[in-house]
Write a structure and sequence with these properties.
alpha+beta, two-stranded antiparallel sheet
Length: about 90
């Protein structure tokens, strides 16, 4: 396996972002949180960072919305599981 040049690595990185940008777009709204007052949320897919504004209707590639929504669902499930564990005590 030959070592890749810096330019080859950069081109792969850019082509990954371009591939994501070519995906169908979908709407995404990130609800503001009264406790966590962050103005942005980050999604990282294969090294590609997407900075998403909170409280605004966004149009993003489908995979970005999917990763964000999956992350929120898993966080909520983890919080539910922790509350359930606390109830057993």
């Amino acid at each position: 396996m030959a070592n890749k040049t810096q330019k080859e690595v950069e081109n792969e990185f850019l082509s990954e972002r371009e591939a994501i940008l070519k995906q169908p777009k979908t709407k995404l709204f990130i609800q503001p949180d009264r406790i966590n007052r962050a103005t942005h949320q980050e999604v990282i897919i294969n090294g590609q960072k997407w900075v998403l504004a909170v409280g605004k209707q966004l149009e993003v590639p489908q995979v970005v919305a999917d990763v964000y929504n999956e992350s929120v669902a898993k966080t909520l499930q983890a919080e539910y599981d922790m509350d359930k564990f606390d109830e057993i005590k």
